[in-house]
Design a protein that fits this description.
6-stranded parallel beta sheet; Rossmann fold; 336 residues; single chain
């Protein structure tokens, strides 16, 4: 049996889908699992997962793009497809690819495209995203073993990361731990703790913990990193926009601490067993907090919390209420 697993489009959600992927394999140990992912997400699954292979799809949600994705999948001869995405479009792609069995949550008007559909839970209590994917697997009549969100990288990727860090003067030690900051968030500025707070925090970590500070992020977040660096007396190293996804995993694997907004990189670091301090604002920690220990969430909330705004139309109180010293306290608990 050959099964296609359509993983989520956001990097953080894709990481949190790992337990569902492992659960599917445990229920179908002889099946050949293939991950189907957006091109920019697919490299997460190149190592250490039960997938036989990965198929990257171009990010084109037009009808033309969906048809092209279906033509790409059709020759693979899949017997079944599990949709961890909730969109109509992703189900349409599997149907157009003539995958005989199509499983997923029956939402977004796509019930008629699925051969086995699971009702989406409607209870009020917040459910972690990783658990939501596992509920789908259970709803299909399968058992789910204890969940674990873990990523693996190769020895060569670790070696390359160490070489690169040393070239930046970032060889870490107990006296000078490597602390990686991720001040961006692809979703939008509403999820970003202000740049001046990150700068103050980084300076305090240098002073209080002897930290070697590295700022990471996408190419679009390079200016944000420069703004933070310019506000510090001892400039940090910056790699924003200068790594591939696999190189980024390698770099993170060498960190003693990762401090981030609620974002995909936060979940990557957590899945690599790097201690994480997550700074949360408009989102619900119960749904998207780091899944594994060691991790700490710093969160204050606000009268308008939670929200789905990409850019806050009010005073961004949920983020501005968090002082650098509060995040520092959480960070130092992992560096002592």
């Amino acid at each position: 049996m050959k099964i296609a697993v359509r993983v989520p489009n956001w990097i953080g959600d894709a990481v949190l889908a790992l337990p569902a992927l492992h659960a599917l394999k445990s229920n179908h140990p002889r099946a050949e699992l293939w991950v189907v992912a957006d091109e920019w997400v697919k490299d997460l699954f190149l190592s250490g997962t039960p997938a036989e292979g990965v198929i990257g799809l171009p990010v084109d949600r037009s009808l033309k793009g969906l048809r092209a994705a279906a033509r790409q999948l059709a020759p693979e001869g899949f017997d079944a497809g599990l949709l961890l995405t909730n969109s109509f479009g992703s189900a349409l792609v599997f149907a157009l690819a003539r995958i005989p069995e199509r499983w997923g949550y029956g939402r977004d008007g796509r019930r008629f495209l699925l051969t086995r559909r699971v009702p989406y839970p409607s209870e009020e209590a917040a459910v972690h995203q990783a658990e939501s994917y596992l509920r789908l697997v259970r709803g299909l009549g399968m058992k789910t073993p204890p969940a674990s969100v873990r990523l693996e990288i190769t020895a060569e990727e670790k070696k390359e990361a160490r070489r690169r860090l040393e070239s930046l003067g970032l060889k870490s030690s107990k006296k000078n731990p490597l602390v990686v900051l991720n001040p961006g968030a692809s979703y939008g500025p509403a999820k970003r703790w202000p740049a001046d707070r990150f700068a103050r925090l980084a300076s305090l970590l240098q002073l209080k913990a002897g930290a070697r500070v590295l700022i990471t992020g996408s190419a679009e977040e390079a200016e944000l990193a420069k703004t933070i660096a310019a506000a510090m007396k001892r400039p940090p190293a910056v790699l924003s926009g200068q790594t591939s996804l696999r190189q980024f995993l390698g770099i993170l694997s060498q960190a003693q601490l990762f401090i981030s907004n609620d974002s995909g990189p936060m979940h990557i670091a957590n899945a690599l067993a790097v201690p994480v301090v997550g700074v949360f604002g408009p989102t619900e920690p119960a749904v998207t907090r780091p899944y594994e220990p060691p991790s700490t969430v710093v969160w204050k909330g606000a009268a308008c919390w939670p929200c789905l705004y990409r850019s806050c139309p009010y005073g961004h109180e949920c983020m501005t209420a968090i002082a650098p010293e509060e995040v520092l306290e959480a960070a130092l608990s992992y560096l002592r």
